[in-house]
Records
---
Amino acid sequence: MRAFRHALLLFRSPPLFPLRIYRDIAKRYHSITQRPRTDFVSSVHSRASPGSLQTSQALARIAAALEFVSAVVLRDNELIFLLTLTYLKLIATEMVIQKRKRLDIWTPSKRTLVDSTEFKNSLISYYDRKDPRSSDIKCMVLDKFYPRDRVCGSHIWKYATYGKGLDEFGLKEDDVNKERNGLLLGDGIEQAFDSKQLCFLYNPINAKFIVKVLDPGLLQSLTPVSPSQTRTFSNINNLPLCLPAGCSPFQRLLSWHAECTYTTALKKSWIDQPAFDTFTTYDNLSNGARPNFLEDLDNEE
């Protein structure tokens, strides 16, 4: 009976099965408990809400339902089939969700605190950002020259991963140190990028990448964003990423970073659901298809 009571929790979520399946379970419940099955059906139906269960919760509840069905109503092949299919579908969805979490690699523990001289030099050459009269470097957002130690050679896909996970995006592990996996950003901008407080969106009208600051705390701050002494995060919001003709970062990685940033912003209530829904991926601008695990989750949603 305890397994059955746990199974009933399954039906507090939006209906997973046709109402006739609920009635069938209620009928079998009545045969065991002698309680009116009509009361059970109406109770189940009234509990259905427009929200959705967390996948992990739904998995536990489906498992409980399967336990009950197997033990009490094993002869009901249709119900067992429906429960099993739903269980397997939720397992697949949970695997995709966990993979997404694993591939959200922009965490404090994965920040590279010391620039690689070789990597930074390759970015300076690739994006043509060196001052010919000094050792200063031009930030790709602020578009001004600053001392070399104030402009970071930032890996988009963080170096601390050693390239693990890049195969999901049609890239190789050694692409982690390729010029296209990097940006030259002022140190304050680089830190906000790594912390998923800002990202880059693609504007198809002018074919440019633009800064999008999502953390309201940064937007409201009057403190200049380092290394600038005058511009705030509000000032740099919607500025373009300065790229020379024919040179571009890995756009599929910038797009994935932006998707992770928007997800973080929604979880932290920096933005609401309508604002989140305006986000459009732009990984299709790169050579290589949208990663399969993202397509799978898109289909689930």
---
Amino acid sequence: MALMTVVGSNFAFDRYSLDYFSSAMAKRGIHSIELWGIAPHLNLFARDLGAETDRIRACLDQWSLSVRCVTPEQVIYPVNVAASDEQLRAQSIEYFRRAAAVAEHLESPYLFLTSGWGLEDEPKEAAWRRSVSSLTEIVAFAESLGVACLIEPLQRAESNLVNTVADVERMLSEIGKDSVGVTLDTVAASANGDSIGTYLARLGSRIRHIQIVDGTPTGHLAWGDGNLPLDAWMKELAESVVDASLTFEPFGDGRYALNPESVWDKGLPQVRRWL
């Protein structure tokens, strides 16, 4: 049977303080979190990153929360490890090196990565090579700090590089580090035509983090606000041998911005039935 543990996440809480979010998780019996690296919760552009990390650690300690995964914002922010602009690519690598240092300081076992994206009017393979080079460098640096990395396939509208199970298999092979795991995002999987069964069969123990999200099939919605078969997928996951953390990623369409706790009140009882 699977070993899955629910962890909190601050997605949709970015209009609230870190203390408010931490309190909301602790009150729901959550003990560890995926920390989305977006200001005001985690500002990876802070001049004094040590002070920023100390502030976060003090807040989380107050609510007895640990960090399972540091997830730097890398779609909204001007960050792209596959950028054709070498200055932007170098800045992006440095951004993730800073994130790895934060993960080490917060004693997080994982740093969350994506492939970046290439320009639509350039050869895909050129962007792929830049992505592999950047990710290999970031993975090696994180590993030197005792932090393992996770790679998440993105939807096609977000990236033209790692979208499918086949894509992430190739990326893992080219990076060549067994320590690198995979994040399974149910919306991305559905949008890209991959089933949960395909993820389990082909990636197996490399799946180390799961974002269980509803959609139509996209949208990153709270449980029940879309039409994806989340119950059936949770059954598949629960009957597998996957050992992973599990959380929600409710970006949605802005509907949760003023009441992010509603996402947890909808989804948490549903997920806990399978654990």
